[in-house]
Design goal:
The chain has helices at residues 11-19, 31-36, 72-83, 98-104; strands at 6-9, 23-27, 37-38, 43-44, 62-66, 92-95, 110-111. The protein is α/β, with parallel strands linked by helices and 112 residues long. It has a five-stranded parallel sheet. The chain has a two-stranded antiparallel sheet with strand order 3-7. The radius of gyration is 13 Å and the shape is globular.
Length: 112
């Protein structure tokens, strides 16, 4: 059995997927970070209490993790891959540069 493919995607690619309702976006930052700013449509699953079994990926959706700068989402992707619960035959995606890159690309952020 091969390990899941983990890919880093640009903010623009993820926004395009989101515009077509093709993504389950999982924010692995902590609740206090989420409370300050978040990407619309993301679900919060903090890395500090990350449970791969809590991810219910709808059929046909791409799984994308994001964090502040792109580091913690890599840890979440690796944890999911190691759990054996990763989507079969589908890559795990990460938002390159995290919410910082998302905001720098001029994409929508919900404040507070």
């Amino acid at each position: 059995m091969s390990a899941p493919d983990i890919r880093i995607e640009s903010p623009e690619t993820i926004q395009d997927w989101m515009s077509r309702d093709e993504v389950l976006l999982v924010d692995v930052r902590e609740p206090q970070e989420w409370a300050q700013a978040r990407i619309p449509g993301a679900m919060l699953l903090p890395l500090s209490s990350f449970d791969p079994a809590a991810i219910d990926l709808p059929p046909g959706k791409k799984l994308v993790f994001h964090c502040r700068s792109g580091v913690r989402c890599g840890a979440a992707a690796e944890m999911l891959a190691a759990s054996g619960l990763a989507p079969k035959g589908a890559p795990i995606h990460r938002l390159g540069g995290g919410i910082i890159a998302w905001e720098q690309a001029g994409l929508p952020i919900e404040q507070g």
